[in-house]
Automatic annotation (TrEMBL):
Coiled coil: none annotated. This is Ribosome-associated protein. It comes from the Bacteria. Belongs to the prokaryotic/mitochondrial release factor family. InterPro entries: Pep_chain_release_fac_I (IPR000352), Pep_chain_release_fac_I_sf (IPR045853). It comes from Roseateles saccharophilus.
Length: 136
């Protein structure tokens, strides 16, 4: 399956400017530079298969109502934090869109079985040589 080339529509995203935590001096108490991004999975334009995979994921960023909440506060700029939050949302959706390839069960070859048994017997001989011999 090719990579999902998806961009969220602006009406699907809800931004809340909040005060960032951490160091920053007096500025951190005055300016709301951090961003909470809310994205409703059920009401989005995502394909149904990706929606189902996202809703079944055990991710702390996804609420029980099916809303993704991403907090971005790395930058001192509100716009850069918004862009970072959107990029992280797209990354999350890309990860959910990736379906791992199903594993096919295979049998070990005859040679690999023989090598394994040979190694086991050699190891057994080494350990048997370490045992103390009883003096009768």
């Amino acid at each position: 399956m090719p990579e999902l080339n998806w961009q969220p529509r602006p009406d699907e995203l809800e931004f809340d400017a909040i005060r960032a935590s951490g160091p920053g001096g007096q500025n951190v108490n005055k300016v709301s530079n951090a961003v909470h991004l809310r994205f409703d999975i059920r009401a989005s334009s995502l394909p149904e298969a990706v929606k189902a995979r996202l809703l079944n994921w055990a991710d702390q960023r996804i609420t029980s109502e099916g809303v993704v909440v991403i907090k971005a506060q790395d930058s001192r700029s509100l716009e850069r934090n918004r862009a970072d939050a959107v990029a992280r949302l797209i990354e999350l959706v890309q990860a959910a869109a990736h379906v791992p390839k199903a594993r096919k069960a295979t049998k070990p070859t005859y040679g690999s079985q023989q090598r394994r048994l040979e190694g086991k017997s050699k190891r057994s001989d080494v350990k048997a040589g370490r045992r103390s011999k009883a003096d009768f």
